[in-house]
């Protein structure tokens, strides 16, 4: 098995390459001021919003949010995994990729082993569909649904034969392999006797791929009378069903520039549509469409069409989809809602009317703006004052979930026209709604406040990242931004002791950056992003680098030093405040002389800080 690629080699490789040259070989860049621009290769657009910063060796798309260094670009553009992308860039630089042995497997390597095992599982299921003596039931089912062998190959469809241990016998050859099959969700272990058996039995198998094409899970459609009818892999280290869509990878592969995505309910809908030439469909995996799903989709195409059955269940699902879509509807994005006749699904519909008529149905799907107003107006008499008033109270809070921008402003204007209310009045309705949503504050303790000489500020736990947050109120995020813009500034400061004890979600990232930069003082911004590429910390760094409120002044070293000093001081103030609060849990008159003396000392120290 190949060893781990040394981080020092990756850093050196990124230092040797120019991201402008790497990207320009694949996407035509034009000089624009200090940066280079192009139409984004990751989503459809007419006005260039893709920017490459040669100084920082970093790219960012202001339209879809894609960003990273040269290595990340190769991974996403060429749809390669990390090791293969390193090899491609190393070949460009004329370098050979070194490998190092490791005394233990880090989590990324463990995940890689699961990916490899799941690929072997897919090979096994594909082979069973070709050669298993009981394959005919599966073959007849697929043919009966109108699927060709070519489509089955495109989606890697397979067959899990009847029996409790077919996969186990084929791939569980040793304890390590058995554990990988368990970790990957392919085997189930009985608690009462610790026996292992196959999760998928007597089912058509649909491999589920992530956006890089790696198999991360499976779905199975039963052939007999077993329940459930559809079965998915469980949550695993490589599979989180709330983040993945079945068929999205194949849609991207079939359409170099994906213009729209049709979101349906099942695997067979996706495959049947592809069979008829509708190669831009994807399905959720047993969950409702989430905002996270949609943000990922909108990075790759500008339009989403939700497809639902026309029954009551379909209408309820559509309302849930609307609520998930609203926070993702930035300007330039579009969502539509398509309701099929009752008793029909996309599979039956496309077979009945053909691809051309089906696509015409999709083209006529109800835009989000119309669906929002129409769904909220159901059962209301809009000719009456009461009906219009109720529409305003129902629709305004939904519109408020939209990101600020032109679309949100137009939606508020449209609501004003439909209800006859001024936008000022609608704003007041929203304010009342927001106040009603807020939890009631805890009751004050006047006896405590009366005895305080200094009122300590409450300690707040910052979110991991908030684009609206004022940088001056979050010294940790600002320190991270300073290091990102000028990594060499780390050599002039020490790591604050407060970081190891801070409850702030971003404190571990700042501590890790300082530790890395103290060890590797020549690191660049691109190296920092590359070090945590594909992880939550990497996403935080990418966003920070682009936000104006986190762009530092001219003297970064001084700003960093003062920010870390403020951080240390604030931590000690909070600690003293906690001790003061502890003493003041009882009335001042009830404190002993020693406690009163201690309270005075603490308040004095806090004041001095």
From TrEMBL:
Catalytic activity: ssDNA + n NTP = ssDNA/pppN(pN)n-1 hybrid + (n-1) diphosphate
Record domain Toprim: where: 259-341
ZnF (CHC2-type) intervals: 40-64
Chain segments carrying region Disordered: 434-470
EC number: 2.7.7.101
Keywords assigned by UniProt, alphabetized: DNA replication, DNA-binding, DNA-directed RNA polymerase, Magnesium, Metal-binding, Nucleotidyltransferase, Primosome, Transcription, Transferase, Zinc, Zinc-finger
Entry keyword annotation includes S-adenosyl-L-methionine: no
GO CC term (a single one): cytoplasm
Entry's Gene Ontology molecular function annotations: DNA binding; DNA-directed RNA polymerase activity; zinc ion binding
Gene3D superfamilies with a match to the protein in the record: 3.40.1360.10, DNA primase, catalytic core, N-terminal domain, DNAb Helicase, Chain A, DnaG, RNA polymerase domain, helical bundle, Zinc finger, CHC2-type domain
Gene Ontology annotations of biological process type: DNA replication, synthesis of primer
Enzyme class: transferase
Obligatory cofactor(s): Zn(2+)
Textual note on the cofactor: Binds 1 zinc ion per monomer.
SMART domains noted in UniProt: DnaG_DnaB_bind (SM00766), TOPRIM (SM00493), ZnF_CHCC (SM00400)
Biological function: RNA polymerase that catalyzes the synthesis of short RNA molecules used as primers for DNA polymerase during DNA replication.
Family statement: Belongs to the DnaG primase family.
NCBIfam families assigned: dnaG (TIGR01391)
Domain comment, as recorded: Contains an N-terminal zinc-binding domain, a central core domain that contains the primase activity, and a C-terminal DnaB-binding domain.
Quaternary state and interactors: Monomer. Interacts with DnaB.
Name under which the protein is recorded: DNA primase
Lineage, highest ranks first: Bacteria, Pseudomonadati, Pseudomonadota, Gammaproteobacteria, Cellvibrionales
Record gene name: dnaG
């Amino acid at each position: 098995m190949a060893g781990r690629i040394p981080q020092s080699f990756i850093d050196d490789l990124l230092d040797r390459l120019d991201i402008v040259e790497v990207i320009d070989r694949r996407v035509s860049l034009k000089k624009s001021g200090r940066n280079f621009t192009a139409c984004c290769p990751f989503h459809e657009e007419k006005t260039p919003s893709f920017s490459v910063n040669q100084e920082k060796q970093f790219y960012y798309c202001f339209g879809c949010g894609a960003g990273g260094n040269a290595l990340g670009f190769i991974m996403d553009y060429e749809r390669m995994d990390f090791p293969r992308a390193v090899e491609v860039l190393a070949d460009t630089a004329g370098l050979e990729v070194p490998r190092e042995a490791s005394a233990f497997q880090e989590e990324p390597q463990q995940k890689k082993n699961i990916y490899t095992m799941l690929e072997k599982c897919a090979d096994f299921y594909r082979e069973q569909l070709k050669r298993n003596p009981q394959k005919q039931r599966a073959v007849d089912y697929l043919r009966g649904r109108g699927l060709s062998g070519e489509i089955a190959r495109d989606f890697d469809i397979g067959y899990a034969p009847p029996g409790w241990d077919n996969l186990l016998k084929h791939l569980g050859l040793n304890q390590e392999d058995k554990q990988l099959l368990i970790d990957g969700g392919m085997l189930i272990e009985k608690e009462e006797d610790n026996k292992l058996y196959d999760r998928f039995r007597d089912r058509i198998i649909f491999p589920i791929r992530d956006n890089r094409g790696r198999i991360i899970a499976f779905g199975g459609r039963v052939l007999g009378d077993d329940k459930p009818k559809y079965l998915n892999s469980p949550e695993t280290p490589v599979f989180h069903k709330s983040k993945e869509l079945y068929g999205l990878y194949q849609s991207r592969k079939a359409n170099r520039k994906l213009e729209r995505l049709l979101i349906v309910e099942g695997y067979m809908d996706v495959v049947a549509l592809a069979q008829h030439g509708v190669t831009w469909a994807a399905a959720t995996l047993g969950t409702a469409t989430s905002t996270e799903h949609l943000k990922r989709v909108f990075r790759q195409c500008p339009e989403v069409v939700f497809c639902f059955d026309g029954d009551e269940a379909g209408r309820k699902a559509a309302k849930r989809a609307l609520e998930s879509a609203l926070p993702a509807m930035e300007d330039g994005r579009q969502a539509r809602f398509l309701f099929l006749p009752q008793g029909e699904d996309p599979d039956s519909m496309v077979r009945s009317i053909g691809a051309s008529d089906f696509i015409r149905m999709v083209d006529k799907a109800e835009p989000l703006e119309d669906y929002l107003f129409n769904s909220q107006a159901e059962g209301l008499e809009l000719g009456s004052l009461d009906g219009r008033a109720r529409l305003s109270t129902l629709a305004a809070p939904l519109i408020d979930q939209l990101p600020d921008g032109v679309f949100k402003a137009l939606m508020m204007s449209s609501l004003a026209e439909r209800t006859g209310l001024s936008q000022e009045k609608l704003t007041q309705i929203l304010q009342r709604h927001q106040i009603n949503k807020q939890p009631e504050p805890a009751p004050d303790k006047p006896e405590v406040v009366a005895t305080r000489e200094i009122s300590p500020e409450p300690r707040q736990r910052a979110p991991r990242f908030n684009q609206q947050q004022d940088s001056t109120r979050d010294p940790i995020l600002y320190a991270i931004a300073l290091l990102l813009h000028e990594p060499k500034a780390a050599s002039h400061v020490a790591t604050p002791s407060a970081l190891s004890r801070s409850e702030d979600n971003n404190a571990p990232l700042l501590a890790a950056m300082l530790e890395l930069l103290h060890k590797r003082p020549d690191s660049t911004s691109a190296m920092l992003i590359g070090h945590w590429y594909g992880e939550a910390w990497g996403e935080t760094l990418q966003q920070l680098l682009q936000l104006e409120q986190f762009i530092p002044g001219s003297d970064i070293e001084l700003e960093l030093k003062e920010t870390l000093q403020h951080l240390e001081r604030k931590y000690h103030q909070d600690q003293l405040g906690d001790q003061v609060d502890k003493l003041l849990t009882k009335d001042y008159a009830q404190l002993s002389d020693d406690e009163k003396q201690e309270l005075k000392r603490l308040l004095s120290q806090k004041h001095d800080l």
